[in-house]
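#structure-requests
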Amino acid sequence: MKRTLTCLLAAVLIVPAAALHATVYLSADLAELTTDARAVAYGRVVALGAQWLEERRSIETLVTLEVETYAKGDLGRTVTLRVPGGQMGPYRSVMLGAPTFVEGEEVVVFLAASGPAIPHLVGLAQGVFRVRTDAATGARLVTPEIVRMPGAAPLEPARVVRGDASRRPAPLAAFLQEVRALAGRAQ
């Protein structure tokens, strides 16, 4: 009886562990993002579309970007990239660290791809920099995503350190110039 109970307990503990999946999120700086990217594009989001994956087990969003310029590589005047998560009717799939996009917004994206595959973001949300216009000066500024720490509740505020140099908005032209310089060093 004791042996049966031990085997049953072992099965209960081992079987669920085999089905667990984890997301490991490693922080990357601008140089690492640039090196790992096949292309770095600045443009406007013109279309969003969700699709089912893996026999309706998860959803991904296809983001179409009208590219104004590339700081590295060239994938054409429009590029469609894959982002984990999205919504199909009443079903929503969320992946920790995956960004969301809105039609019409301007972004700089760091893209990876191999062969003819649809590109994806390098480092998930780390590979997205939002572009906005400063109301006071009219300057185009680039700001990185605020990435939530693994295990943080969805509505819990992300930790932002005041004065963190990596969070300071940068002028768009200077940011693209820095990426081009980093891309030149990587080759």
